[in-house]
Structures are given as C-alpha cells and as structure tokens.
Specification:
The complex is a heterodimer of chains A (222) and B (186).
Chain A (H helix, E strand, L loop, with lengths): L1 H4 L11 H17 L1 E2 L11 E2 L3 E2 L5 E6 L5 E5 L3 H18 L5 H13 L8 H5 L3 H6 L14 H12 L7 E6 L5 H13 L4 E8 L7 H9 L1
Parallel strand pairs in A: 2-7, 4-6, 6-7
Antiparallel strand pairs in A: 4-5
Chain B lengths: L31 H17 E2 L4 E6 L18 E6 L5 E5 L10 E3 L1 H14 L6 E6 L5 H13 L5 E3 L4 H11 L11
Parallel strand pairs in B: 3-6, 6-7
Antiparallel strand pairs in B: 3-4, 4-5
The chains are: A alpha/beta (222), B alpha/beta (186).
Chain lengths: 222, 186
C-alpha cells in the first residue's frame, strides 16, 4: 500500500565521458593547427594584402614601426639571428665609441628578439636594464625623422660592416596601418642607403577579389 | 548456475534470478572535473595562439643612384599617376598633368581598381607604368593597399615617387585646406 504513495524518482546523473572526448579533440585541434604568437614589445596592426607567401622565421632582420612612427629593429631567435645581433652590437660599439661590455652585448642579443628601439646615445643605459624593466619600458624608437640623422641607417650599416656585406636572408618590414608615409619613406631611405633593395612587408592575408587579373591568373595555374 | 562475472554495468548490478547478492563497489568515476580541465586548456590555447600567420609581401625598390640613362624611359601616354592623400583620398590622372588640371580626377580605394584595369586594357603592356605618389598625410596602409592593387591588377611596372608641388596644390585646392606650413608632421 505504501508503495502507491512513493514518488518515482528519476536519476539526474549525466554521464560526462563524452564531454571529455570532445574537449580533448578540440584541444588537439588547437595544439596542432595554431602557432604561439611571437612576443612583441610593440603592438602593430598590419595592413592586408593578397600575398600568400609565408613569413619565414629563420635568419630574419625585422624593422618595425608603429602608428606613432617609433622604429624598432629585431632579429629572429635562431642561431643566425643571434649571430647577426651580436655583430650589430659589436660594430655599433666600435663605430660609435660606446664601449659596450660583454654583459651589455648579451643584453642586446636578448632584447633583439622582442625589438630594440632607442637612439644610439641611449643604447648603453638601455642595455643595463633588467628583463622586467625592458618589458615595461615604452621605448622612444630609433629616430628616422631627420634625413640627415637617420639612425636606422647607422644600425643597418653596423650590421653590414660586421657581416662583411652579407645581408640577412630575410629582411622584413613590419609596419602599422596608421603610420604616416614620411616614416615609411625614411625607413626605405635607410634601406636604400645600406644597399638593401629587396625585402618583404609583413601583411595579413586577404582573399583575391574575383574577376581581377590576379584571380584569373591564379585560376589558370590550377 | 554460477555467478555472473561479466563487466560491471552502470546501475549497480541487477540481481540475477536466484543469485546470491554480491557486495559490489561502485566503480564509476565522475568526469566533471576532467571536463573543466579540458576546457581550461582549450581557453589557454585560444588566447595565446594565432591561426592566421602573417604573410610576406615581396617588395623591390629601385636603386636611386643608378644613372639617368640607365633608367627606363616611361612613355607619357602609358603613364597612370595615382596620388594618395589623407583620410583615404585618392586622386589620379592619365599621362602628363595638364597645366589647367583638367585631367586631375578624384576617386577612392574601391573605384580606383576599375580605373586601373580600364587603363590597363587600353594600353600596350610595354608602355603601361603606374606611378604612385603618396603625400605626407597618406598612411602606410594606403601605400600598401595601392601596392596590393598593383598585384591584384598584375601591373608589371610601377614606382613609388615623391609628390611634386603642382600636384600638391591641386590636392589642397580640391580638399579645401591651406597648404601645410612645414614638412613631416606627425
């Protein structure tokens, strides 16, 4: 009799095993299909272009400029990049009479992965900063405004003197959308003066618009 | 006959008919924390990685120190000049700039592609050259977009040159502003 009054209880327990499988599948996708964003000291918004050639990450010299026109130089973190960073530091020290110590040169090589953007006169004190201070500092950028005092040329010249004229395999120009043309022109002037005529611009991918000659050309190849 | 020794099923085991009750331990594992962990890891990867790697746009610049005779002559009729001004304004003219500015036209980034393609269709390839002249107020994005248009339209010869005074005056007249006092503003 008492059984008739008993409220039938239904189990509300959900088996989560399937959820775990899905979660680890999504995780595997992200681990395999993406790459870690490289550490950048300065935020740069690249313009879009239809180029689909991939950016290389070996033996790269990258000159970046942000929307305020602050110019930075950086090297890739691989063996070639470090070697070039060291050569640039040593030659700058010699040519500009900075007398950088070994610790400062090591510091230069370290900072060159994220980017170095200080006028040459400030270089010694800049290289004495610790890793944490370096990350905090808002660097003033290498001055390129004045065509007579284009310090980017000095940096590049130091590198090329050090390598005996050998240029890095990949020279990239990483510019922000909003930077005004004069900064770009002066960076190009420093490049031309150093004998660099062929380089690559860092851009984000944009699809080729249909109906255009390039689109037709790409479809003919297929 | 004997006890049922198959794998323990969820629900705690039913009593078989006539079988002695066995003390069954509950072997279920609650997977909820595992799911939390999984999603935490996913969130980490979503925020620290990027799916679109930046692409490289090859650019070759001419050597300015090359002697004038060695530089190829551009036929005036095949030339198409595009000027980039502030706030994404675009101006263009075909051939040489007329003294009265009659062939000076204004456009924007969307329509300029049609104009370039039109010029390309009307000009023999060996004469076609596009000259890009950015003003001091043009942004890097404008210049790269225009270089991109060269790729899209497959223009083989183009150059980025400084703007001259006649063109600057025309642009200022069209935009209705007074000419800038000095060079290189911020």
């Amino acid at each position: 009799m008492s059984k008739l009054n008993k409220i039938p209880r239904k189990s509300t327990w959900v088996d989560m095993t399937a959820f775990v499988d899905v979660a680890f599948l999504i995780l595997s996708f992200f681990m395999l299909a993406t790459k870690f964003k490289p550490p950048e000291v300065v935020k740069i918004d690249n313009p879009k272009s239809v180029s689909s050639e991939n950016v290389q990450d070996k033996d790269v010299l990258k000159v970046s400029f942000d929307k305020d026109g602050r110019v930075f130089v950086s090297f890739s973190a691989d063996q070639d990049g470090r070697e070039k960073a060291q050569l640039m530091a040593e030659q700058l020290s010699k040519q500009k009479g900075l007398n950088l110590s070994n610790a400062q040169i090591k510091s230069f090589i370290n900072f060159s992965v994220g980017g170095i953007g200080v006028p040459i006169t400030q270089l010694p004190s800049f290289l004495n900063l610790s890793e944490a201070e370096y990350k905090q500092l808002k660097q003033p950028g290498i001055p390129v405004q004045d065509t007579l005092n284009n310090q980017l040329y000095d940096y590049l010249n130091a590198l090329l003197t050090g390598t005996g004229g050998r240029k890095p395999t990949n020279i990239m120009l990483n510019g922000d959308n909003a930077t005004k043309y004069p900064y770009f022109k002066n960076v190009l002037a420093a490049f031309k003066k150093s004998g660099i005529f062929s380089f690559k611009l860092v851009t984000s991918l944009e699809g080729v618009p249909s109906g255009t000659p390039l689109y037709k050309q790409q479809n003919e190849k297929k | 006959m004997g006890a049922d020794v198959s794998a323990p099923d969820s629900g705690g085991g039913k009593k078989g008919p006539g079988v002695k009750k066995q003390a069954r331990k509950d072997t279920r594992v609650d997977m909820t924390p595992m799911v939390d962990l999984g999603f935490l890891l996913i969130t980490f990867f979503v925020f620290t990685t990027t799916m679109s790697t930046p692409k490289a746009f090859k650019l070759n610049v001419p050597d300015d120190s090359a002697k004038d005779e060695e530089q190829t002559e551009a036929k005036a009729s095949g030339a198409f000049t595009v000027m980039l001004s502030k706030e994404n304004h675009v101006y263009y003219y075909e051939g040489q700039l007329q003294a009265d500015g009659s062939n000076f036209k204004s456009s924007n980034f969307k329509d300029i592609r049609a104009e370039i393609l039109k010029k390309k269709a009307n000009t023999p390839e060996k004469d076609l050259v596009v000259i890009i002249k950015p003003t001091e107020e043009a942004s890097y994005k404008n210049v790269v977009d225009m270089l991109d248009e060269m790729q899209i339209a497959v223009i083989k010869r183009y150059a980025v040159v400084d703007i001259n005074d006649a063109e600057k005056t025309l642009i200022n007249a069209t935009e209705g502003s007074s000419p800038p006092a000095g060079a290189g503003g911020q």
